[in-house]
Amino acid sequence: MSDFISNPEDIPVVLLAGGRSSRMGANKAFARLAGESLLVRIASKIGQRQRKPIALNADADWPDAIGMRLIPDRIPGKIGPLAGVLTALQDALLRYPEISHIATIPIDSPFFPSDLVQRLADVLHGPDEIAIAASLGQDHPVFGLWPVSAAADLEQWIASDEKRRVRDFLARHKVWRVKFPAIETAIGPLDPFFNINTPADLAEAETWLTALERTS
């Protein structure tokens, strides 16, 4: 358990849905997995663990936020996931002045661990540290806990760094990586952060979901 965050259930969570969904051919948040949209599936999963209302980082003209508070990117142009992180941090500074961190989760990875926020919070030791998920040798920084104290630095960095690589921003801060194991299923190991970008990925996710149901 973290010696810094006493109750991870109080960490505000923002779902990131600000991408273009160009490879899917339609808004992937509304792609249906076993008859349920990815947005509903992921919001329901994380909402069972967190006490503060879940917010959605998406376009201002989003058709259906399923009751979540919508916080559009403050920087136009869809410049990448860190624009969504910045928006979430700036929103939290105004709405939750008592908190040190926010959590971000993308809407295209339905198999993420249900105890994600707890596990990430457990490694934090101070208000300025970042915690991100990792699996199978790969970082997944969009699954992260971000300190609100980093908002000003992130805003300046986005404005001045042309490449805006997530790893370059992380290199400016103290970062903890939490390694999550593959999920054992009836057809083999599943990366818990498998993400859906294309119709083929969605079909593969259906196969994994069926395998998980057979395993449980």
Structure description:
The chain is α/β, with parallel strands linked by helices. The protein has one domain: Spore Coat Polysaccharide Biosynthesis Protein SpsA, Chain A (Alpha-Beta Complex), CATH 3.90.550. Helices cover 29% and strands 21% of the residues. The protein contains six helices and eleven strands. It has helices spanning 38-47, 81-95, 116-121, 151-160, 166-170, 199-215; strands at 13-16, 32-33, 36-37, 55-57, 69-70, 101-106, 130-135, 138-147, 175-179, 183-185, 188-190. The strands form three sheets. A seven-stranded mixed beta sheet has the order 5-4-1-6-8-7-9, sandwiched between helices. Strands 2-3 form a two-stranded antiparallel ribbon. A two-stranded antiparallel ribbon has the order 10-11. Strand 2 (32-33) and strand 3 (36-37) form a beta hairpin. Helix 2 (81-95) runs antiparallel to helix 4. It is globular, with a radius of gyration of 17 Å. The model has no long low-confidence stretch (mean pLDDT 93).
Pick out its properties.
Spore Coat Polysaccharide Biosynthesis Protein SpsA, Chain A; single chain; seven-stranded mixed β-sheet; globular; alpha/beta; two-stranded antiparallel ribbon; 29% helix; 216 residues
